[in-house]
Specification:
This protein is mainly alpha-helical and 690 residues long. It folds into 3 domains: 219 residues, no CATH class; 199 residues, no CATH class; 147 residues, no CATH class. The chain has 28 helices and 7 strands. α14 packs across α15.
């Protein structure tokens, strides 16, 4: 329905408003014989279509056609308003609220702005529904308190319009109403809309009171801090990334599938972390037989189950799940004697799925609603020679294609993860990337999980691979996206880039840089603004960058941290004196870190003079060195390095240890052995177990 049609439909409201409160629709129906224009206007208003399934008189309005075009992550209640649930509000005032809501769904935002600035589009249903629910809840509370004192009949007789409510009513009868400042803002926004000339002229003869909630007897609380600044701890991020790569690579190798991520293959030989989860000794026979068991148990005809799962090496010619189970159990008794039942395979499949999920979700930086749109049976798209995952973006629609809008760069590790996920998707008969662990019953349509599914999958996965190393409160749908932005900001600052997978982006820089000026910088990922694009250009993005800067300051100037080198102790003592002075003045350590970050100290990663304890050398005015891996206590007696360097030194140790284990016949054995010893000494001096 167009704005003109809505305005035409509600225009007679002022003429019939006085009688709406006194007569029910049934009474109007009886009076219709009189062919009164007033009766006709009332009936037209009550029967005005609001959406494909709702009309004006309905107590509950639903907008399914709007929801179908929006992100699946939005709850269905965001596209509904149940006016009938506010029983204390007089019917006539509910009609006013309905008219206001209806007009606002069509009125351009520019018409609501006093500065005449704004977009041509109207406010979104999902935005208005939140505001009006808050508004109606508040007004319902006020009328409920008034009814307690005067009786509902008295209230209904004396309050037929919002004009009848004075500021004193809101002040007095807001008592015991408790709400956050954020919700109070929504309430006040609706009062502001009602002041708009377009609405006011339709609904009111005179002025209406527009209360400020904080000036009433209501109880206001601080808005609960959201999760926008939460990111995974660096060690959690590093271990989860490495373990995910290991699990996926191990799965593919056992099935004879080519592994594209050579880095993960190399890392498997000298893996730096303990693997606490059980990895099944799987092969094609186990996989194909298990897939048919899953599918036939859900009502799939055998032939269709074979087609869906692409099973070709089944252990039995049996065509029913019972006999297939017997064959598989017998085979497992030989290949996996520790496995008591088939639940072990299910748990392993869930583990591999979650590992692949983590890699894709973490290193695309997709929003939850975009993850819900990804289908594993959709082909990858080639963009300037780079394989890209395709998804749909429901936010910030525009005609210009940008890196993180609908094409998502696939690193070799991500391609491996996708391959593993495709294999598992076949036994679930569900092509959606974000999907349930259960197999879809034959005849049912596959569906993705909701936005909460992101948190569910992530929480259970981290609990499996790194139990006790993260807080449950740290897990929320956007945490992986924000963690990626945070790590990109760290890369921009010159900190060690601890990810095992993001380094693959470096191989893609040239391709994108030559194709578009909106691609990666050829210097560092952070300079391309990817961090800002992931986190947004708002305060949220600034906070993530600030978090990275503070982390950089801590790594170099923490008075309680470990520093390797003969001057490390002197540097730490110097930092303690600095911090003691500021803390004596009343500042906390976090406030000092923040102040140092704001002064730009996070950018100084090398050449800081740290290795000389801040002293000047009287016989040499030049810098002792230019930093890098050569700056360590083995090569330079003055070197001071920090805990921020641990990930890179661990990588040096792991990669060279692989060469050493090949023996003296291996390539560059002596150099590798020297590198291992050097890295080991550095790691031990920083308190790391090797």
């Amino acid at each position: 329905m167009k704005l003109e049609d809505v305005l035409e439909g509600v225009r007679p409201y002022r003429d019939i408003a006085a009688r709406i409160s006194r007569l029910s629709e049934s009474e109007y129906q009886e009076a219709k014989k009189a062919s009164s224009s007033e009766v006709e206007a009332f009936l037209n208003l009550m029967n005005m279509p609001i959406s494909s399934i709702s009309v004006f008189k309905d107590p509950k309005w639903s907008f399914p056609e709007v929801r179908s075009k929006e992100a699946k992550t939005l709850a269905v209640t965001r596209f509904e308003v149940d006016f009938g649930s506010y029983s204390s509000i007089p019917a006539a005032i509910l009609v006013q609220a309905k008219i206001a809501f209806l007009v606002l769904t069509k009125l351009p935002r520019v018409a609501l702005s006093k500065s005449r600035r704004g977009k041509g589009a109207a406010l979104k249903i999902q935005t208005l529904s939140l505001s009006f629910r808050a508004f109606l809840t508040y007004v319902n509370h006020v009328f409920s308190k008034m009814a307690d004192q005067f009786g509902s009949d008295v209230v209904a007789d004396n309050f037929q319009s919002l004009e009848d409510l004075k500021r004193s009513h809101y002040v007095e009868y807001s008592e015991s109403y408790s709400v956050s400042k954020n919700v109070a803002g929504r309430v006040e926004s609706v009062f502001a809309y009602l002041q708009n000339k377009h609405l006011h002229d339709i609904l009111f003869n005179g002025s209406i009171a527009t209360p400020k909630i904080e000036q009433t007897k209501a109880s206001l609380s601080e808005t609960q801090k959201d999760d926008r600044e939460k990111v995974l701890d660096d060690l959690v991020f590093e271990k989860a990334t490495a373990l995910s790569g290991y699990i996926v690579t191990d799965f593919l190798r056992k099935l004879g599938v080519e592994v594209r991520d050579r880095k993960s293959l190399d890392l498997m030989r000298n893996f730096p972390f303990d693997i606490e989860c059980k990895l099944v000794d799987i092969d094609r026979e186990i996989l194909d037989t298990y897939a048919l068991i899953r599918l036939t148990s859900k009502g799939w005809p055998y032939d269709e189950a074979v087609e869906v799962s692409a099973a070709s090496r089944v252990l039995s010619r049996a065509r029913n799940s019972t006999d297939l189970r017997k064959s598989l159990r017998s085979y497992l008794a030989e290949t996996n004697p520790d496995m008591e039942n088939l639940d072990g395979i299910r748990e392993y499949m869930n583990l591999v799925y979650r590992a692949g999920f983590f890699i894709i979700a973490q290193f695309t930086g997709m929003r939850p609603n975009e993850l819900m749109e990804v289908k594993l049976d959709a082909p990858l798209e080639d963009s300037f020679g780079v394989s890209c995952l395709v998804s749909k973006v429901r936010k910030h629609q525009n005609s210009e294609r940008a890196l993180f809008d609908d094409l998502w760069v696939c690193t070799p590790a991500m391609l491996d993860a996708l391959e593993a996920l495709k294999i598992i998707a076949r036994l679930k008969a569900n092509p959606f990337f974000l999907s349930s662990a259960d197999t879809v019953r034959f005849g049912n349509s596959p569906k993705p999980l909701s936005q909460k599914g992101v948190s569910h999958v992530l929480f259970h996965y981290l609990t499996q691979i790194i139990p006790g190393e993260f807080e449950e409160s740290d897990i929320f749908p956007y945490v992986l996206r924000h963690t990626l932005a945070y790590q990109l900001f760290k890369a921009d600052l010159g900190l060690p880039f601890i990810s095992h997978q993001l380094k693959h982006f470096g191989n893609l820089v040239e391709a994108f840089g030559s194709a578009s000026n909106r691609g990666f910088s050829d210097v560092t990922l952070g300079y391309g603004g990817i961090g800002e694009r992931l986190s947004g250009s708002s305060k949220k993005g600034q906070n993530l960058r600030q978090k990275a800067e503070v982390q950089a300051v801590k790594s170099a100037y923490d008075p309680d941290a470990n520093y390797a080198g003969i001057n490390g102790k002197e540097h730490r003592e110097r930092m303690r004196k600095v911090f003691e002075g500021y803390m004596a003045a009343g500042y906390t350590k976090d406030e000092i870190y923040l102040a140092m970050a704001k002064q730009g100290l996070a950018i100084a990663n090398v050449g800081t003079g740290m290795c000389y304890g801040g002293k000047a050398e009287d016989f040499d005015e030049s810098l002792p060195c230019i930093g890098g891996l050569r700056c360590n206590p083995v090569r330079c007696s003055n070197a001071v390095i920090t805990e921020a360097h641990i990930p890179k030194w661990r990588e040096v140790y792991t990669e060279n240890m692989r060469v050493v284990e090949q023996g003296e016949a291996g390539p560059a054995f002596e150099q590798a052995q020297e590198a291992v010893n050097e890295a080991k000494m550095v790691l031990v001096s920083l308190g790391e177990a090797v």
